[in-house]
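Intended use. Records like the one below are meant for learning the mapping from a protein sequence to its folded structure. Do not use them to infer anything beyond what is encoded.
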Amino acid sequence: MREAAAARDLDIEIRERPAARSLFEAAELLGIPPEGIVKTLVVKRSDDTYLFALVPGGRSISWAKLRAVVGVNKLRLPEAELALAATGYERGTIVPIGSTTDWPVYADETIVGQRIAMGAGTHGYSLFVDADDLISAYGATVADISVPEEPRG
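Structure written out for the chain above:
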């Protein structure tokens, strides 16, 4: 992870944290708002290639918006074992930095200009990075790809 970040001249900070049962609990442990944590979702295309979608806490992928930006008719979340095979990371730890394959990155426009926390490739750690630096380092496509999450009731 650190080597992959250094290779792209990306300044990262990795912090150990207790296990969290949810994104909101992780945000509380880190002392940041939930939208400060960005979920890295690995998304499977119908041709068996993948992409990363970066979506802040409190928001979900808008499948219609993401399909339009990517220019495809079908996208889906892969099974856990496919996500691991595609990235080298388990769900909940996935991050573009250090992935076994440099899949294209699509970043929700709401993270621009923010310092964000993300998965760090292993459980019990969070990675902090300036979103703009991450976007630049990975040539990410920035677009409106999310919607507010539905309240859980």
